[in-house]
Each structure stands twice: as structure tokens, then as C-alpha cells.
Amino acid sequence: MYILGLDVGTTGCKSIIFSPDGRIVSSAYGEYKLYHRRIEWSELNPYETWNTAKETIRRSIENVRIRPEEIAALSTSVLGEAFIPVDEKGNPLYWSMTTFDARAVEQTRWWEEKFGADEIYRITGQPLTSSMPIYPLPKIQWLREYEPKVYEKTWKFLCWEEYVNMKLCGKPVTDFSVASRTMMFDITRKKWSGEILDVAGIDEDLLPEAAPSGVVIGHVSPKASEETGLSEETLIVTGGHDQPCGALGAGLVESGPAMDATGTVECIGVVLDRPVLNERLRRGGFAVHHYVIEDIYFLFGFNPTSGVILRWFRDNFAEGERMKADEKGVNVYEILMSLAAESPPGARGLFFLPYFEGSGTPTFNRKARGVILGLTLSHKKSDVLRAILEGLSYELRRNIEAIERNGTKISEVRAIGGGAQSDFWLQIKADITGRLIVAPKVTEAASLGAAILAGVGSRVYESIKEAVRRIYAERAKFIPQTSNVEKYGGCYGLYKRIYDALAGIFDEI
Amino acid sequence: MYILGLDVGTTGCKSIIFSPDGRIVSSAYGEYKLYHRRIEWSELNPYETWNTAKETIRRSIENVRIRPEEIAALSTSVLGEAFIPVDEKGNPLYWSMTTFDARAVEQTRWWEEKFGADEIYRITGQPLTSSMPIYPLPKIQWLREYEPKVYEKTWKFLCWEEYVNMKLCGKPVTDFSVASRTMMFDITRKKWSGEILDVAGIDEDLLPEAAPSGVVIGHVSPKASEETGLSEETLIVTGGHDQPCGALGAGLVESGPAMDATGTVECIGVVLDRPVLNERLRRGGFAVHHYVIEDIYFLFGFNPTSGVILRWFRDNFAEGERMKADEKGVNVYEILMSLAAESPPGARGLFFLPYFEGSGTPTFNRKARGVILGLTLSHKKSDVLRAILEGLSYELRRNIEAIERNGTKISEVRAIGGGAQSDFWLQIKADITGRLIVAPKVTEAASLGAAILAGVGSRVYESIKEAVRRIYAERAKFIPQTSNVEKYGGCYGLYKRIYDALAGIFDEI
Fold it and tell me: What is this structure's pTM?
């Protein structure tokens, strides 16, 4: 038997079929567009996204010589926060606003003033700040105010997990991790928060049923079978939010290792056996919510602009390297990494603050901006590149330290996502954090995590722990080099003081 | 009749023959090497430099159909500070240490402690700081300590003006402006400072005769005539330090206009009818010395890394533009300026601090470093380029304001040097400083200034003022655009606060 992990992201989706020992049997990828109809809006077209998803599932099945019935189950890992208002027939009524859609500023401020960010954090584990209106709660209020007809016609507000589940088996069931990210879910009571919904004036019927991850919802419907090529025998199982799914794919089942998922954004997460909520974490922007294992929690910080800065550099300052990559038929990032390696640790005194869209946790300052500091005539492109990698890695260290300050000891860091493909960068991360960095074999950890949940729901595995034992394997380990750790230790102190020195300037820009 | 201005610089020399109305009749350029035998040393080879100079003079004469006798006189404009110990036959005994040769740190500190930087400034007008051992005084002491045999054999320590004069007419006569830059010249008494020489233990006989600029020293010697192609009828006239020569070429004869000379380094200078010396100017790094007109003084500030930053950017981040320039056969800087022009005033929130080798006047901080601040994903290469030009222009504004704070009103700014070739940059300078920026017709102002002195000495002109009236002409004017001036006004305040916020960080790097 096989298991399928579908990962619906911000700009594309992946359908990956795994064997029970974690080997990728088949994989397909489809892209869709992220729309910006207004400058501060950021939306998906639900029709386009679902059409891409179903075609991607179909290609992953057709790519390989297995019979659809051999796929025991499917679970979905999704981008958080994005939601779709649907009518009773399940038809989308509006665009799907994504995480960085910033329109609901006033509604978010309303919650700060009316209810208090500390109180909403106590219930939901989510840090609210009016400068970042991330969550569905204020966005649903925006819809009610500015698109009242849409609101009136809405049967349910669905995030992408339950929307996909509805499309595949008719039942729009979400899981606790995705529900946590709506800012309407009581993480202690494991149900929608009556208190918040009352204040918001939102009827609980407008929200889907929420269940733990890894439980069976139903079978693939005849219609969905026709649309996707899946067998009607395949089970649909609750999946989860892509960050905890990624953590599960990296083998996290209990406290100890941390996940470092480096893509456009970089997320640093740990699992906890109880929700740890305090004022310092809230102000630092750390969210606490349900993990994809029941009664286990997930604490995570983030750097909103990680890999995307390398892409920015590639697009703006690496014309020569792009041409060289085309000529040689190699990946341009490999060339950029080799160039960075020409600069010694510390980038010969250059510092780079990667706050290209504000800083993430733990400084959590929307007004922060990117900085290159320490330039002299002797610096070259290689130094700037190395400084970028080091700056991103200092942010990782800040997050590790902020998480540990709250009593969670981190034993090692498991690196996943596109950024985990560069051994050079992983060694920098080891040297800067002073931690063992482990690269798992599978970097597509979110799909793997979803597939594990599918396998648990469909009894391919007896338990999540058994699944992880069978599936999780290391590709490489990166051990901190003592001399570099010492050098970076001094630089890190200075790195933090640079931010402190500039905080007032960022307020002014 | 014609006049010849020879300009001996750090990496090359120019010999330009002018007609009395300021038209360039012939021009030749020769390069020599700046040697760095040790990392902090920076030297010229006196043989190589003189050989290049005499060949360059020869080419400038042979290039054009004039008879050598038609050249009435020659004056030399020189890089300041660089000097050569010579024996009684005028043969060089050692390399010529240039301005940025940093070996004499201890000797400079000795003066700070033994004599006081304020006292030495009162006598010489030169701001002494041990972090920048610019001047011949401490470097001669270094020679006595580390190369005692060279010191013992030395007949005279000659700067390049008097060395060239000796080579051309046998008499090593310097002028007051070049003498001012040795840190041994009493600018009020117009003679070598007995007080400083006593403390230093340097015999005044080791120094050359100093005269005002524009006075005849002698005729070209038969040997020099053979070496250079000059006529023995041509007069050799005292010239000056390249910055005041440039100012004279830009028509500065009295208070009012300022000179802004933008090459590798950028110098901002004004002429004064008396030496203005105060603690604020000294701490800000402003030097005051003799102008190339007797009893007139020259106050000047500088930015040590101006045009050189554009070269740094070109070499490191403009591969595509360099290729495009080669293809089209145009200057790469033109392409870079067009690119910068794609970004709006304010560079969309980017700030650039150009302290790539420490800051010049008026912050005068050797520890300062270059900074790019305000980066977001939406910034492009064009924004970075514009931010560089704006940062350099904010430094110009700082210097203008620092000079005006001392009671010298600046009526307009005359832009010379390579940087004055970009109208786009000159308009930015106008908008940022709020001043009228004037580009004179001749950008090779240092050679023109020297030629004016030659013409005054040889009576081609009745006076310097008459010479300037005949020679000086404007190529273009750049008037501040009100809307941009307002926008930049706010940015400028923030620009200064960024430096203030980072001053402590620069101490740590």
C-alpha cells in the first residue's frame, strides 16, 4: 500500500505518493497565481487553485505504475490562514485571502482595543498585532463590512484543508492545527471559542467541524474520483497546517529537536506537551497551537523573508551568475553558494539584517528594514552573499534562544525546505547557533508529514511514533566547528546591538 | 602664447596646454603605479613618476602644432603630502609616501601627546589625528627612526611640486599651499615653524624654500629641455596643491562660491580672506591653509570615498551593465546613471552611508563604515545606485553646512572632476543641498588652475582676477527643484540620525 501527502501552498501544490518506508514513489507539482488586485491584498482564486490541485493529484498517480486502489489514504497539508467563503453547495463566493493580505488592519485594531491582544492570545495562542492582520477572524469581519452580500450568502468559511476535504469526500472537516490559525479556536478546550465568536457576532455554524489530525473523514467520492483519478477506496484523513506537518515529516514527535523550515519564509518550531503561553512569547510574535498529534502543542517563530532574499539578490545583483548557470546547466543558487564560500566566516566584518518585510520573531517589528553594514572598498559580492546567509542564521539563533528561554531545551535542529539543500549554509547555521544541524533525507517534509497522518488514519501504521521510526532518516549532520563558533559568538552580540541601535530609526522611515 | 598646467596625481599625471582664453590646445595623460609594499603602506616610485611626468609633458607638446617657445610658462599642481628625501644631487633616497600611507601612527600619537593636536592646528591649520597619519612631519620622523641612513644622507625633503621644479629648472622651490600640507608650516607667519621644527628636531635646512604661488623660479634648464621637449625660454612658475589649484580653475578668487571636486575622493573647499581656525572645525577634520593667491586662505573638507564607491559598485555588482557598455561602446557609468534615474528621489526609502574608509569631514570618524539601510523586496539595483548618489550628496550638504556654520556664506557650488560629468548627479546635488550647482566648461580644473598661475607668473595675465575673467566659463547650471528639496530635507535629517544611531556600533566593529 501507498500513502499520499498533498501539500497546498501559497503559489503551488505538490502531490507526493510515498511507500510506507518513506520513499517517494511519485511526485507532481502544479503552480497557481497569487493575485494582488490591490497593493495590500494577496489572494488565491479558489477555482484555479482547486483545478491545479486535482490535476496535480492526477499526474502524481499517472506518473507511476501503481493502481489507484493501492493508495490507502490521502491527507492534506495547507498554508495557514487562507480561507474561502462557500455557499451550501460548496461553491466559492469570494477570493481566498492569504496570510499576508493586509486589508483587515482596522478590524485587527478593533480586537486590540475591544478585547485585548493578551486575552485573545490566552484563548487562541495567537499573537495579535494590528500591524499584521494575518488571521481569518478580522478578515471575516472585513468581508461582513465591505462585502455584506457575500457574508449573507456564506454557508461556511473554510480554510484550504477542509475545502479540499469537502471536494474529495463531501465533508468539510478541519483539524485542530489549521483551526488554531483562524484565531477563533480555543486551544485549551479544543473547540471553537464561544467567547470570541460572541464578541465577533459570528455564528459557530459558519465554521467547519474540527477534529484531531490523522482521523478518517470518509472515502473519495465518485465525483472526486473522476476528477482526480483517485480510487473511491482511498480514505480521506485529516491533515494539518503545513508547518507542523513539516515538523512531523522531520520526525518531531516530542520535545527535543527543533524544526527549521527554510523556504521563502523560515519557520522555527518545537513540539510541547502543554501550551506554553506568556507575555514575552506573545510580544515576540510566537504562536502556540495544536500540533498534528492530539494533546501535543507546537510553538513556532518565523523569519518572514529568508530564502526570498536570496531570490531578490539573484534577480537584482547576479546577472553574471545567472548567465553562467544557464551556460553550464546548473542551479544558480549553487553558483551563489560557491561564491559566498569564497568569503571567510564573519564576511570580513559585514553584517546583514534581513528585515525586508519587517522582522519576525522574536523582535517582531513590522517597521524594521533590511540593512547591510560594515562596507569597505575591499568587500566583494562574495562577502555580501555570505553576510546574507549569516544574517539569516543569526535570526535562527535568536529564535532558538527565545524558545529556550521559555524552558524548552533544543537538542538538535532539523533543517527542511529548499534552504536545507545547501550544505554550505547548513554548516554556517551549525557554527552560528552552536547546535547540531541535521538534514533529513526527505526535504519535502510537509507532504511527508501529511502522508504519515494519512497512514496513521488508514492503519498503515499503528501509531505516529511507529511511522516516524520507519520513515525518518538522516541525510547529513553538521557539527559546529569550535573556532567558528567562537568567532560568531562575538559577531552575534554585535548583530543584536545593531538592531537595538536602529530600532528608533526604523520607527521613522 | 600658451601656458602649461602639469597635474601630478596619485596614480597618473596630466600635462595640458591652454590658450590664454582657457581653451585646451593639447592634453596628454600618463599612468604610474601606487605601490603597497606593506598593507598599510602606500608609495610612489620617484623615478617612475618623474619619468612618466617628463614623457607626458613631451607628448602634450608633440601632439599639437605649436613651437615649444610658444609655451610662456609651466606650473605644477600636485597631490599633497607625498614627499621624497633627496641627496645633494637631487637623487631620490627613498620611496615617496603618499597621503594614505598609514605607517606613522606612533609618531602622530607622539605629537598628540607631546605637543597637542590643538596647538599644532593653531600653527599649521592642519587637524592632526593619530588614526590618520597623513602628513610629512610624522613620516619624516618615522624615516629617521626606521631608516636612519636615509635620513642622514638627506639633503632636502621635497614634495612633488618642488621636486618637479628642481627637475625642470634646478631650484626646489615650493609654494605656500603645498608647504601648508607638510604640517611644518606656520600659516600665519608664512614660513616654516621654528617651534614645530625644534620639537621635532628637524633642521630647517632640510626643507625647501617656500614662495607664494604664481612667482617665477627660473627657466627650463638645458637638461630638462632635452628630457621633456620644453623650450629653455619657458618659465617655471610656482604652482600649488591640487585642491586649491582646482578651485582656482573653477574660478574661485574670493569668498562666495564653493568648489566641489568629485573624483575618487570628494573635496569641498572655499576661499577665505583670513584663516578661520576653531575647535569645531579642527574636530570636524577641516584643514585651513594658504590658497594659491597670496594672503588668501583655503578651507576644505573631504569625503575620502566618493567616486571610488561607484567604481566599487561597477566592479562588483554591474557585470550586466559592463557587458552592455562594451557592446554599445559607451561608458559604463552612463549606463549606471541611467539606471539610477529609474528610481525616484529618495530611492524609495533607501539610505546609503558612504563611509567605506571611515567618514570624512565633518563627522571625521575613521571607524565609520558603509551602510545600506531600508532594504525591502521591492528595491531594485536602480534604487541602490540612486541611494549611493544621494548618500554622497548628503555628505556634500553636511560639509556645506559645517563650513557655513563658521560664518562663510556659500553662494553657489562649482562642480569639477570626473563626477561633474553626470548632469543627473549634479541635479541630485542641487536638490539635496538646495544650492545652485554650476558645472564649469573645463572639468580638468587643477591643470587649468596651475596654468593660470603659470600665466600670471609669466605676465600673460596682469592679475589672477583678469585671468579668471578671461578663462572661466559655465557649461551648465543646476537649479534646486522645490518639490525635491522639500522631500530631501526630511530624508537628510534622518540620514544624519542614522549616523548618530550607529556611531557606537562603528566603535565596536
Answer: 0.94
